[in-house]
Amino acid sequence: MYGLQAEAHFDGAHFLTDYYGKCENLHGHRWRVVATIEVDDLQQDDAPMPVGPDASPYAHLGRDGAPTAGETDLHAAGQLREDGTRTATGTMRGMVLDFGVFKRAVKEVADELDHTFLVEEGSLRPATVTALREEGFTLSVLPFRTTAENLARWFFDRLAERGLPVSQVEVDETPNNRAFYAPDGHVGR
Q1: Is 0.85 topped by the overall pTM?
Q2: Are 170 and 33 in contact (CB under 8 A)?
Q3: pLDDT digits over 94-135, tens only?
Q4: Distance between CA atoms of residues 94 and 112, nearest Å
């Protein structure tokens, strides 16, 4: 098994609905996110490194790292793609994935929540949400209680949607408190 980890941070405020303690009040964190991707084998072919904002680095690979049948969406290195972007001139031979591609994906997902107020859907009155938005606050309304555990699952799902072979995501809300989500129970540390 081969794997990579990438880390990103975001600042966000939240509160815990129906919690009886300090965290029921609005407070903020410098959240740390560590994502892990794993494959059984390193890439063997001269697979081009995908570039561009919507490039799925694993669109042409299965979970085991082998090319999937019928997938031809990545062209030879340095060639023009249908969407107007070009593939990188290097390859991912001998890699799980280019670190830059992976780090960028984790950062882009973290940036969706950066400097926002994380709100559990339905936890505030509609008039309160409206008033906050009218005052210029940016809210990230999420369909779950905004715990570190649920955020780990949210990050996992968002990265998996991008085609990454994600195996685990850890979310720290403080340097001493970490939650993780790993669907198979595997903890990589």
Answers
A1: no
A2: yes
A3: 899 989 999 999 999 999 999 999 999 999 999 999 999 999
A4: 31
